[in-house]
Amino acid sequence: MNLARAAGAALLVLAPALAEAASPFDGFWMKVNADKSLDPGSQVEFRVEKNILSMATPQGQGYRAKLDGTDSPVANDTATTSVSVKLEGRNVMVETAKLNGKAWLVTTMEVEADGKTAKVSWKNLRNNSSGSYVMSKQ
Question: What is the pTM of this model?
Fold first, then answer.
């Protein structure tokens, strides 16, 4: 009986760390081309830690944004100076890219139940164009 209580207490203590480590966004992602090949130039890494999403690319672009929709600066990107990021449920992230405070691109990433693929849709607010693609976790 004491062993069961100790195990239960350990799970309660570890639950926040386990939940954080289990973010479906964590890892390296690449766009899947129409021919099912991967686009290495599209590689992006996401990490979620304590309600903060970190994004980085091999080209040096990146940010650390709170997941509450507040603006955060973007490094090394001439088209985007800040982003705001929100989670809509556990597996859907909405990122709004801004240039000098004005929103210009909204991207939604939905990680599939398998955790290995994600549907990404985007809308360019400048010219009202939109599109979608699939990403694969590496």
Answer: 0.82
